[in-house]
Specification:
Elements: E1 5-7, E2 16-18, H1 23-34, H2 37-47, H3 49-52, H4 64-87, H5 94-105, E3 106-110, E4 117-121, H6 126-147, H7 153-180
Antiparallel strand pairs: 1-2, 3-4
């Protein structure tokens, strides 16, 4: 439609310039932001490494059956930890592990020919999943707004509004004076 094109000031009549990105490009951009490591890093910065790893008291939900299971599976965990230490001799920091954990927990998908996104989180507990997902979405929204906003535009429009308001007041004063004369 006509709302999607404009005449380039330097072009001759008949040439148009598209001023709107395609929906597909926008969806791809959003998916890239959603799956970026920067979002996962900020989630870890906000929640903290122990919370993301499920080690903090507020996200840990343990029942008596979990305690029994822990007692039985402790030797298996030791073996798994030894395997991890052998397979990862360089020693990744706890923060990096937490970032990788967030990236693995959160999955983002979009149906073809749709602008609806699905973001899911699988974690050790529902409380942790909820907390990580809420933080993830909030961080994404802040980042998306930051990336799609022109810096200083609000100040510019606020200044223009104040200027136009002054001009309107001046014109109203002149009109009132003219009517009184």
């Amino acid at each position: 439609g006509r709302e999607n094109v404009t005449l380039d000031p330097t072009a001759t009549t008949g040439q148009t310039v598209q001023i709107r990105k395609s929906d597909e490009a926008e969806i791809n951009a959003v998916m890239e932001i959603l799956q970026s490591q920067a979002i996962a890093e900020e989630v870890v910065n906000i929640l903290g490494v122990p919370t993301v790893q499920g080690k903090s008291d507020e996200v840990r939900q343990e029942s008596t059956t979990d305690s029994v299971r822990k007692f039985v599976t402790t030797p298996l965990r030791w073996i798994k930890q030894m395997k991890r230490m052998i397979s990862n001799p360089t020693g990744v920091s706890e923060r990096e592990k937490a970032i990788m954990s967030v990236s693995k927990m959160v999955k983002c998908t979009s149906a073809p020919f749709s602008n609806v996104f699905t973001i899911t989180c699988k974690a050790k507990s529902p409380v942790l999943a909820k907390k990580v997902l809420e933080t993830y979405v909030n961080v994404f929204m802040e980042e998306y707004i930051r990336l799609n906003r022109t810096k200083g535009s609000y100040d510019f429009f606020a200044e223009q509004t104040a200027l136009l308001h002054q001009q309107l007041e001046k014109a109203n004063t002149q009109l009132r004076d003219a009517e009184n004369r």
